């Protein structure tokens, strides 16, 4: 059975990622419930992926928290960049203009 310490090592980086998403929401001009919920979900999702990547690479616990917080703050922008890049690659692969 996993100890409470293991759960804390997973929860704190996710809290930092969601806090980054909240900060991104507060810096944004659009303030409505839909944008807040979408932003928090995306921040948590990106933070979780970054947390898994950091643990896989053996990054220190402090750096995991930092990376998760930054990924939460930049989650919308990062996903837009990935989406644009992936769509361009698919269009090139399909040879669609």
Give me some keywords for this one.
97 residues, single chain, 0% strand, 4 helices
Level of helix content? over 70%
Mean pLDDT: 85
The proportion of strand residues reads: under 5%
For the secondary structure, the number of strands is 0
Question: Your description of this structure?
Answer:
The protein has 4 helices and no strands. The protein has one domain. It has helices spanning 4-27, 33-57, 61-73, 75-94. The chain is an all-alpha fold.
Please outline the helices and strands.
Blueprint: H1 4-27, H2 33-57, H3 61-73, H4 75-94
Helix pairs in contact: 1-2, 1-3, 2-3
What does this entry show, briefly?
This protein has 97 residues and is mainly alpha-helical. Helix content is 85%, strand content 0%. The chain is built from four helices and no strands.
